[in-house]
Structures
1.
Amino acid sequence: MKRLDLPAYESAALYDSSVAGLADEALRAKFEENRPTVVEAFHLFDENSQTKTWCNLPRAAHGHPDAIVVGTLSKGELVALYDEGVVKSRGEPRRIYDQIKVSARDECPYCGGIGEMGEVGELGTADHFLPKAYFPTYSVMPVNLVPACQVCNKGMGASFPTDEHLQPLHPYLDEDHFFTTKWLFASVRPGDPLAVDYAANPPADWPEKDRLRVAAHFEACKLGSRYRSRVWSEISPLISQRRSSLSSLSPDQFREHLAVAANEPGLPINGWKRVLYSALVSSNWFCDEEFE
Ligand SMILES: [Zn+2]
């Protein structure tokens, strides 16, 4: 999990520029007429960001593109504003959209950068934190667009929990402690090959809501199995080094060597790699093993 800076774009400004780019004059006028109601809806989103209760925002029924969801605007029209006015725009809205996608610097904030960010030649995908299938009103809000890898994007899916305790973590808007306090842990299972198990285990003194949200996020993005399968990319070269360039180190010196990566301030505290090194430091078996 990685914190991202809030996109520096006003929601109403992106709405205006997306509407201005629409070819259909009557539709443009309709979006302009509805602007005050839409801006009010954006404020409601911002209010719920304060309390982290996005799940309570008005929800449209699945399907039903003709259903009116805000002012006189239908769900289909709002989704089309995103598709036509933002994604297919050749002007400012597309530039903003691309900026948001590259803001993660190729590291998905939901999983901490283990997933592919996009097809070859693509900048990656932008996930609607509140999916447009249920929350079309917020489909052009920059704060609702999060750069994400394909697996996390799919894992979050088109649905959103109705229970506030199960909401995934928001990389721009969520509580600081999700990003500054360790809640991801790993343990080494000795053997050949060894295995590393990851678990979400937030501090006991956190509010129950936040503890449950971490667990829900860990599940939704399938972080346990994805991190477990990733550890070999790190451990194989490490074991090779232990057999060669690091072979003269005593177990304690090897542990100190591992501790440098475990305490690397440049790595996210809940990133799979830093957590892996913490687990290796704590494993007497790994530090003592000779890997013949
Ligand atoms: Zn991801």
2.
Amino acid sequence: MKFQETYSTLQSILSNVNNDSDLFVQELHQQQLSYLSYSQITTVEFCQQRYYLQYILDQKPEPLPDYFTKGKLLHQLIAQSYQADIDGTIVSLEELQAQLAVSDECCDQIHLSNALMLYQQHRWQEQHVLAVEHPFAILLAEDLPPLVGVIDLVLQDEDSIILVDHKTGRNFYPYDELQVAIYAHYVQSIYPDYDCQLYYDHYRWVNNLQRIRKPAFQRTLVTMQPALDALYRQRIYTAAEIIRRLHEGETPSHTGACFRCPFQKNCKFSYRN
Ligand code: SF4
């Protein structure tokens, strides 16, 4: 019952903010609601201490890594370009590059400029853009907090709904089927008659597109295995239980891989401190 009420509140927030993802995230931040997200789950799986710093103490990594700012900016520019499709206008590559040039964000502009060129070459052209930066909430089970998330891009291609998640990084990383499972549950709840597909569009940060030995862009169709649904649910239940205990004051463990963690400077347990 408790989670059903939370879910209803989340639905009201979504409706009040007219499905604006930034406003939705702001509202979530201001309210003491018990919900889960894919990021929370993977963070607590990675290291409980990181979850504690990030979601309970609400800290940001110090200093903020360049890849955070770059990834966010690329997401914003790509979202703006697909939003133009919905609005029936066009944002050219030159306009995106010009916005990048005047951005106040201090990050590697060459990486971003190259990523924008790759975006222009590989952007989804044939499909109908249904939504950009689409926030959602779903109640998977009565005894689980609702899951919230923001889907980067929702497309329709005849009888298929295509979800696209933009990934950025120095390399292409293996995908996690849990994210697909969550998205698929949500999409099937609102488009029950459609086939659902999820793609990862990966952008690799590179300095010179003419000199790369391996591709800097990769599109991956991510398949969810229904037989593993119980396993995905188990991961969510396990994370939900740890998160509940951490919010109730349990001391976090710190078993993460510190060398891959952006919170090293914030963390007294980091191998560097
Ligand atoms: S630095 Fe290590 S112990 Fe600290 S939050 Fe990161 S992974 Fe966990």
